[in-house]
Every structure is written in structure tokens, then in C-alpha cells.
Design a protein that fits this description.
The protein has six domains: about 5-205, Four Helix Bundle (Hemerythrin (Met), subunit A) (Up-down Bundle); about 315-455, Beta-Lactamase; about 470-575, Beta-Lactamase; about 580-620; about 655-805, Heat Shock Protein 90 (2-Layer Sandwich), CATH 3.30.565; about 825-940, Rossmann fold (3-Layer(aba) Sandwich). The radius of gyration is 57 Å and the shape is flat. The termini are far apart. It contains 27 helices and 22 strands. The strands form five sheets. It has a five-stranded antiparallel β-sheet with strand order 2-1-5-4-3, with helices on one face. The protein has a five-stranded antiparallel β-sheet with strand order 7-6-10-9-8, sandwiched between helices. The chain has about 950 residues and is of the alpha+beta class. Helix 7 runs antiparallel to helix 8 (about 315-330), helix 7 (about 260-310) crosses helix 12 (about 430-465) and helix 17 crosses helix 22.
């Protein structure tokens, strides 16, 4: 067995490794088993203690529950608490039985005995007595029983349970600490064992190196002696049985063999001399190959020159000419042509214009073109030369046409290159070589196409930048301009943005400084933008001089790419309009302050006089009249503010009905006549179509503003003409005065909120600048338009247009005789809308009655007993629609009549809650109301109430 391992180095190594692995595994398994047993033992102890802890906690919770239920019973007298106590008593006895069986230590038995004694006394003595006291109403005995120690015994038991829980928890914590300590010790032993095994492994490696490395080194020394020409007689370690001994023996035999074969080596040297001659012949062949290589090098140089020539131009025509001329030269061809499919462009060498046209007309539809697309390979056509190709030679001879397809990176054919050799053809190797050149041609063509696309995108982006209303400027990190748009060019007073490109920081800031009054802050902002010193979101406002003074807001943003700042984008925004609006608002605040304080001063002054002095009745009346007028003026001003706020928020409500515009305007004129004795009012009515659908009060407000303005801005008096006429689509009202007129520069802003014409005469007249803005919004809501024409010093004409509405009058004759019946009663104060609804329902075969007052309608409803009622909310008379529906629903004779509310008020839920059968918000189609009525009546018919009339 010993010799078995001596004969092999591998066996020795395996034996050593096996011993090491066995020791390592044995130690690791032993340590692992120890660790597992230790952990399992401690975990079992922890689990047992935790179970005991849970048992005690449950018992304490049950006892607490019994205490709360008993207190609940004594407080409320509910038997449910007694039932819960009985269940908890059973559970406590069951838990005590289980606890006595499982846990038998002295502490466990003491706790169990204490709880058992307490529960026996509590459930068998204390609790029944207390319940008896409660049922008999002996509360004083119950309180005395509690104070005599009953409560203290409960607290003592609960305290014992808490103390026991604390002890068990401390035991669990101690076991956990013991587990952590022993686990740490186990890990330290494991680490020490691994360290020991590493040391053992190092020792084993050292022994193996000494066993195998030393002999090998001695053999290597012998080899070195032989190499140096020394004569060696003895080789060490030849007596060993392993591989080293075999190597020594073999090495010794090699030495002997070498010495014996010295003569043979001399003979071999002579043979090598002969081989040298053969190598000389091969060298000659290599020289020939070198010549061929030099020729190939020249060819490569030509190809490199070709690639260089087609790579240094961005002009497509020049590129095509360069490609075909170089291909003809490289391929030793007589002529050639390249055809670019996109754009149908060609370039040729040795071809006439007629031949190029012939190629473009016929080749795209030829089979050769389809073959090139399908195969993606070059194709050669061998043919007889034409007469023009032969020249002065009479006999025919062969020529070759080589068609080379050029494909893009997406494998789409983009061009075809054709070259021709007159008198010879192309070899297969040449075709393959030229196909490689075609790939270079494709790269050049794709490059120039990409350039053209990028150039188009650059021009598009430039146009987009120039179309932006803000001035945009891109500068580098030194402040020099990289790019700018047309708007910035206008700010800089130049013609084209390209004139600013590459302009140095000092030059463009100097030009900008010359157009700005307070340039120091602007230059500081720009300097901060260049060096990223400005805070995020900061901007600067300055005035730019010129023919028209502009207010410019400037802000900047750094241009970052890959965490590197490339430059800064500076934006110049023209905020002249916003600035003017801000100024207008400031001026408006001043104006409003004046407009509010003036009437308030009058009110306060006259009120103070009346309070502090004894005045005659006529003077008191005069003062009260003044106070009333100034208060009315304040009310009008405040109403204007509220109207503007409501219109902006969309909360303004309009009660739209059909009205004649004539009485509305006439009422306004009548009011204005009282306030003005210098003006003459003229009505010019040229149409009979005077109906509008709108809110009467709002329409009155429109014409009150316009006519009062006509009076106000005609301080010297004159004629105020109101003309009414119509076109196919509009009812038009002109209001013309002979006053101050309006400058043309102010007409565009006239209907803007808070705007007032900048004129001293108008400043004296006063006003808030809200009236015309309100007028425009009201007219717009009514589907109309408003415009103005004016001549300064001669007066103005305001034109209001409303959609034309045909007058509809339906005379519903209602007879109150006995036997007459109305199927549907309409309660509506707008006679036009009532007429429309009546006409629609009469077409359906119903008999209709109309009323505009709720009081009259209620009397007739009692008499006529209609099948349905159509009710408006806003009515003439004292009752509104809400009161009418409440009255009808409270009456036993009318509560079941379906009521359909037709109103402009958006209070649908209120109407439905009051019992309405339908709720329609004006404006709506009459057919929509009819459909709702028919649907309700059909449902009643199915229930056997009525029969719906047939349509006429």
C-alpha cells in the first residue's frame, strides 16, 4: 500500500487533500450539530415560556372582561352583561384546569391557587350577592360591599397576574440573552477552527513543495549544465519510484542518446545546407509576390483617392460627377453613368445627353432594375458593340455592361451605377471588388442626404425661432452670440439674425446699451446670466427706446448637456401691453378712489349737517335728495364692479325671454330726458322686427350705458339719434351723438376694462372705464356684436347687432263658459314664448289656456281641471312660480296634476323636490317640452287615467 502512493505524485497529492478535506468536514459537521442542538434547546425553552405568558395574558384579559361586564350590569342593568360573565367564568375555569395540568412549578401552583380561590369566592359569593342587591335596588349595600374590600381583592389578583407576567417575561429575556451569548461563542469556535485548518493547509502546501519542488530544481540544474556544454555523468533521483524518478531516468537516457547521436547531427547539418538553397529559391518567389503586392498597393491608393474624392463634397451634383468619373477610371471602363433614384438625377462619363434621357425613360421600367432590387447583387450584360462604339473598326466585337446597385443602410435601393468596357468584360473578382466600392458610394450618398435633411431641419427650426414673438438669444460661456432669432434682431436694429452670429459680448452689449436708458442693471443681469449668478426664476424689466417705446422683460436659462454647460439662452419678452394694462389699473385705482370718495364726502357732509343743525323742512328735503342721488351713484358704481366680477367668473345669471326692444329703449330715453335739458332725442324706426330673446334688465343696462355716454360726452348738448333697422340676420340699433368724438388710436382699447381715453376733457367728465366693457359682455352673451365709429370733435356712432327673431303671436281664445275644457294651462308672462308653446301644443291636438299671473291661473285650474300645467317661475303679480306649485300640491283636487316648469333659473333640484314632473331651462326647443308632456300623459294612460289626443 505504501509503494502504491510512492509511485505517483498525483496519488500523494490526492491522499494529502483527502485527509485535509476529511478533517475540515468532520470539524464543520461537529460544530454545526452543536450549534443546531443549542439553538433548538433554547428555542424550546422560549416557546414554553411564551405559551405560559400567553396563557396568563388571556386569563388576565378574561378577568378584566368579567370586571367590566359586572360594572356594566351594575350601571345599566342589562342581562346581556350577565350572559357574558357566565361565558367568561366557564372560560376561566377551563383555562385554570389546563394551566394546572401543564405548569407545575411552585410559582405556577401558587398563582393558580390564588386565582382559583378568588374566582370561587367572586363567582359563588360576591357576584351573586351583588346581583341580588342590584335587582332589589339595595345600592347602599352594593357600595358598601365594594368598599369593604371587593375591589381591592380584584386589584390584588390582577396585580399578581401582572407580576407573574413580568417574571415570565424576564425569564424569556434571560433565555434570549443566554442564546445570544452561546451563539456568539459558537461562531467564535467556528472561526477559530477555520483559522486552524487554513494553517494546516499552508503546512501541507509547504510539505508538498519540499517533496516535489526540490528534486525538480536539481534536475533543472543538470539541464542547465548540459545546455552550457558540460559533460554530465550522473543524474540525481533516478531511484525514485514516482514521476520525478521516471523523469530523471528518461533525462539520463536522453543524455546518453545525445552523445551517441552526435555524428548523426553532423549529417543533418549538411542536409540543412541543402535546404538553405531551397529557401533561396523560395525567396525569389517572394520577390515576385512583393511585386504583385506593390501593384495591389497602387490599386488601393487609387481606391483611397476615390473614397477621399467622394467624401469631401456636400454638393450632390458634384458628388455624382466625382463618383462616376473615378469609377470609370478605377474599373478601366470606357464610359459610365450613375442614376440617383430619389430625384431622378444622373451623371455620366462618355455618354451624350440623348443617351442619358433614354436611360432615365426606360431603365426604371426594365426587368434589369427589378432584378437588381430583388437580388441585391451586381449583374453584367455581355453584348455586341454598337456602330458608334466601334468607331472606325468594321468587325463586331464583345463589350460588357456592369450594373451595380447601391443600397442604403435600410436595404433600400437608392442608386444604380453602370460602367461599360468596350472590347472586353469584367471578371468575377473584379465584380466583387467593385461591389465593395459601391458600399463606399452608398455611404457618401447617405451622408449628403443626411446633410440635406439636417439643413432642411435647420432652416425649419430657424423659421420657427423667427416666428416666435419673443426675442431669443443663445450665447456661449464667454457671452458671444451663437444664434439669435428675428425678433431679437429687431430689438438690436439689424436686418438679419445672421448678422449677429459670432458677435462678441462687448459689441452686442454695447449696441443694446445704446438703446436702454438705465442700462447698468440690464448689463448686470446679463453678466449674471453668463456666469450663472442669477437666482432661479429671476427676471428683469427695462424700456427699449425707438420709434415706439417698448417694455421688455428678460430672463435666462442655462443650456446643459451631459452635466456640461454649453451656453445660456436669454429670452426677451415684449410686455408693453401688460405694462400699459398695469398702468391702466393703477390709474383706475386713482379714478375709483376719486369716484367713491366724492359721493361719500357729500353723503357724510350733508348727514353731519342734518345731525348737528336745525334745518328747515325744504332744506332737509334738499339735503336728503342730494344724499339719495349720491347713494344711487355709489350703488351704480358698485353694481358695475359686481357685474364685471360675475361676468369674469361666469356666475352672472340671465333671465332670458322674448321682448320687444322698442319699449326697453324708450324707457331708457324717458329716464335720460329727465337728467338732460340740452339734448334732443330722436327715434328712427325702420323695421317691424323688433323682438329679441334676452334679459330685459341687462338689455336696459346696455342702452342706459350707451345713451348716458352719448349725453355725457356731448357736454354742449345736441341731438342723440337712435336708429333701428334690420338685415337678413341682424336687428341693428345705432346710437349717434354730436359730442367730443373718440381718437382713432383709442378705438381698439375702448371696450377694455378700466380703459379711459387719455384726454383732459374726458378726465373732467369722470368715469371708471367699466361701462363699455360690461356692455360688450352683455351683448356677447345675447349672441350680438357691438362696434363704434367716431370722428374727433364731431361725435360717435355705437352700433349694436342682435340676431333677428320673427315675431310669433298665437291668439288662444279661451272661453270660460260651462262645458269648456283646457287640456293644458300655460302660466307664462312672456307672450312670445307662450305663443310658441301654444302653437306647438295645438298642433298636437291639445286645447290650451294662457295666463300671466299665478293668482288668476289658480282660480281657473280649480274650474278647468287640466291634464297638465306649464309653469314659469318669474310671473307678473304677487305670486311667483314656487308659490303656485306649492299651492297646487297642497290642494287635494290639484296635487296629482303634472306640472312642467319652464324657466331661465337653474334650480332643477328645487323644482323636482317640490313635485314637478319636468324641469326645462330656457332656451329650449318647444318640441322638447311637448315630448316630456306626452311621455307623462302616456304613462297615465297606461294606468287608465286619460286618453292622449291624436295629432292633427
Amino acid at each position: 500500500m505504501r509503494n502504491y502512493f510512492k509511485r505517483s505524485l498525483g496519488r500523494k497529492v490526492i491522499l494529502i487533500n483527502l485527509v485535509f478535506v476529511f478533517l475540515l468536514l468532520a470539524g464543520m459537521v461537529s460544530l454545526r450539530l452543536y450549534h443546531v442542538n443549542l439553538t433548538e434547546s433554547l428555542d424550546k425553552q422560549i416557546s414554553a415560556k411564551q405559551s405560559k405568558l400567553n396563557f396568563v395574558e388571556n386569563m388576565r384579559e378574561n378577568l378584566n372582561s368579567v370586571m367590566f361586564d359586572s360594572r356594566g350590569y351594575f350601571a345599566f342593568g342589562t342581562d346581556t352583561f350577565l350572559e357574558n360573565i357566565e361565558k367568561k367564568e366557564l372560560q376561566i375555569n377551563k383555562d385554570l384546569t389546563t394551566f394546572n395540568k401543564v405548569y407545575r412549578s411552585d410559582e405556577d401552583k401558587a398563582l393558580s391557587s390564588e386565582i382559583q380561590e378568588f374566582t370561587n369566592r367572586y363567582f359563588n359569593e360576591s357576584l351573586p350577592s351583588a346581583i341580588q342587591y342590584k335587582r332589589e335596588g339595595q345600592l347602599e349595600e352594593l357600595v358598601e360591599m365594594s368598599q369593604s374590600g371587593g375591589t381591592q381583592r380584584v386589584n390584588d389578583v390582577l396585580q399578581s397576574l401582572n407580576s407573574f407576567e413580568s417574571d415570565v417575561q424576564e425569564e424569556i429575556n434571560f433565555i434570549y440573552e443566554e442564546k445570544d451569548e452561546k451563539t456568539s461563542t459558537s461562531q467564535w469556535i467556528y472561526f477559530s477552527f477555520l483559522t486552524f485548518m487554513v494553517l494546516v493547509f499552508i503546512v501541507l502546501i509547504r510539505l508538498m513543495m519540499k517533496q516535489f519542488g526540490g528534486p525538480l530544481k536539481e534536475i533543472a540544474n543538470v539541464s542547465t549544465q548540459i545546455t552550457n556544454g558540460l559533460f554530465v555523468t550522473d543524474v540525481p533521483h533516478t531511484q525514485r519510484l514516482d514521476e520525478i524518478g521516471l523523469l530523471s531516468q528518461a533525462f539520463e537516457k536522453m543524455i546518453r542518446s545525445t552523445q551517441d547521436n552526435e555524428q548523426e547531427l553532423i549529417a543533418q547539418n549538411e542536409e540543412l545546407a541543402a535546404q538553405q538553397d531551397e529557401l533561396n529559391e523560395q525567396q525569389e518567389k517572394l520577390r515576385e509576390a512583393l511585386s504583385t503586392t506593390e501593384q495591389n498597393e497602387k490599386m488601393l491608393l487609387r481606391m483611397n483617392s476615390f473614397i477621399h474624392s467622394i467624401s469631401n463634397t456636400l454638393d450632390k451634383d458634384q458628388l455624382l460627377k466625382s463618383i462616376i468619373s473615378n469609377m470609370v477610371e478605377i474599373t478601366y471602363s470606357s464610359k459610365g453613368l450613375i442614376w440617383l433614384i430619389d430625384g431622378n438625377q444622373t451623371a455620366s462619363v462618355g455618354l451624350s445627353e440623348t443617351e442619358q434621357i433614354q436611360f432615365k425613360q426606360h431603365f426604371p421600367d426594365s426587368g434589369m432594375f427589378e432584378k437588381l432590387k430583388e437580388s441585391s447583387l451586381s449583374h453584367q450584360v455581355m453584348r455586341d458593340t454598337s456602330t458608334s462604339e466601334r468607331g472606325y473598326v468594321e468587325q463586331k466585337y464583345k463589350s460588357g455592361d456592369l450594373y451595380i446597385p447601391i443600397f442604403s443602410g435600410k436595404r433600400e435601393i437608392m442608386a444604380v451605377l453602370v460602367v461599360t468596357r468596350i472590347g472586353s468584360t469584367y471578371s468575377c473578382d473584379e465584380v466583387t471588388e467593385y461591389q465593395g466600392l459601391a458600399r463606399q458610394v452608398a455611404l457618401s450618398l447617405e451622408k449628403i442626404m443626411l446633410y440635406e435633411d439636417s439643413e432642411k431641419q435647420r432652416v425649419t427650426m430657424k423659421n420657427v425661432m423667427n416666428s416666435i414673438h419673443e426675442g431669443i438669444q443663445l450665447i456661449d460661456n464667454k457671452g458671444n452670440i451663437i444664434s439669435a432669432n428675428q425678433k431679437f434682431c429687431e430689438f438690436m436694429s439689424c436686418n438679419l439674425p445672421d448678422q449677429l452670429t459670432n458677435m462678441r459680448y462687448e459689441e452686442w452689449t454695447r449696441r443694446l446699451e445704446g438703446r436702454v436708458q438705465e442700462a447698468r442693471e440690464l448689463l448686470a443681469f446679463i453678466q449674471g446670466a453668463v456666469h450663472e449668478k442669477n437666482d432661479v426664476g429671476i427676471s428683469h424689466v427695462f424700456e427699449l427706446d425707438g420709434e415706439v417705446k417698448r417694455v421688455i422683460q428678460i430672463y435666462s436659462e442655462s443650456l446643459i448637456q451631459n452635466d456640461t454647460k454649453l451656453g445660456t439662452v436669454i429670452v426677451y419678452r415684449d410686455i408693453t401691453k401688460e405694462h400699459e394694462v398695469d398702468q391702466m389699473k393703477s390709474e383706475f385705482v386713482t379714478t375709483v378712489s376719486h369716484e367713491l370718495r366724492t359721493p361719500l364726502s357729500s353723503v357724510l357732509g350733508f348727514t353731519e349737517l342734518m345731525l348737528t343743525r336745525e334745518l328747515k323742512p325744504e332744506r332737509q328735503k334738499k339735503y336728503l335728495t342730494t344724499i339719495h342721488q349720491e347713494a344711487f351713484r355709489l350703488t351704480s358704481l358698485i353694481n358695475d364692479f359686481l357685474d364685471v366680477q360675475k361676468m369674469e367668473s361666469g356666475s352672472q345669471e340671465f333671465d332670458k325671454k322674448y321682448h320687444s326692444i322698442l319699449p326697453i329703449i324708450q324707457d331708457v330715453i324717458d329716464v335720460q330726458k329727465v337728467n338732460s335739458d340740452k339734448h334732443v332725442f330722436v327715434m328712427d324706426i325702420q323695421t317691424e322686427k323688433l323682438s329679441v330673446f334676452g334679459d330685459r334688465d341687462k338689455l336696459s343696462q346696455v342702452f342706459m350705458n350707451l345713451i348716458s355716454n352719448a349725453i355725457k360726452y356731448s357736454p354742449e348738448g345736441g341731438k342723440v339719434l337712435v336708429r333701428l333697422y334690420h338685415t337678413n340676420k341682424h336687428l341693428i340699433i345705432n346710437i349717434k351723438d354730436e359730442g367730443l368724438g373718440i381718437p382713432q388710436s383709442a378705438i381698439g382699447d375702448l371696450f377694455t376694462k378700466f380703459y379711459r381715453v387719455d384726454n383732459s376733457d374726458r378726465r373732467k367728465i369722470g368715469g371708471t372705464g367699466l361701462g363699455l366693457a360690461i356692455v360688450k359682455e352683455i351683448v356677447k352673451v345675447h349672441g350680438g356684436q357691438i362696434s363704434v365709429e367716431s370722428t374727433l370733435g364731431q361725435g360717435s356712432i355705437f352700433t349694436v347687432k342682435f340676431p333677428v327673431i320673427e315675431d310669433v303671436y298665437v291668439n288662444a281664445s279661451i272661453t270660460m263658459d260651462k262645458g269648456q275644457k283646457a287640456d293644458i294651462i300655460i302660466i307664462e308672462d312672456d307672450r312670445h314664448l307662450a305663443g310658441l308653446i301654444t302653437e306647438e301644443l295645438i298642433e298636437r291636438g291639445f286645447q290650451i289656456a294662457q295666463y300671466n299671473k299665478g293668482e288668476e291661473a289658480l282660480i281657473m285650474i280649480e274650474k278647468l281641471k287640466p291634464e297638465a300645467i306649464i309653469l314659469d317661475i318669474l310671473l307678473e303679480g304677487e305670486m311667483d312660480g314656487w308659490q303656485v306649485i306649492q299651492t297646487l300640491k297642497a290642494n287635494e283636487n290639484t296635487k296629482d296634476i303634472p306640472i312642467f316648469i319652464s324657466t331661465a333659473l337653474d334650480e332643477k333640484q328645487r323644482g323636482l323636490n317640490l313635485g314637478a314632473a319636468g324641469y326645462l331651462i330656457k332656451p329650449y326647443q318647444p318640441s322638447q317640452l311637448t315630448s316630456s308632456i306626452l311621455q307623462v300623459l302616456l304613462n297615465k294612460e297606461k294606468n287608465g287615467h286619460i286618453l292622449v289626443p291624436e295629432e292633427k
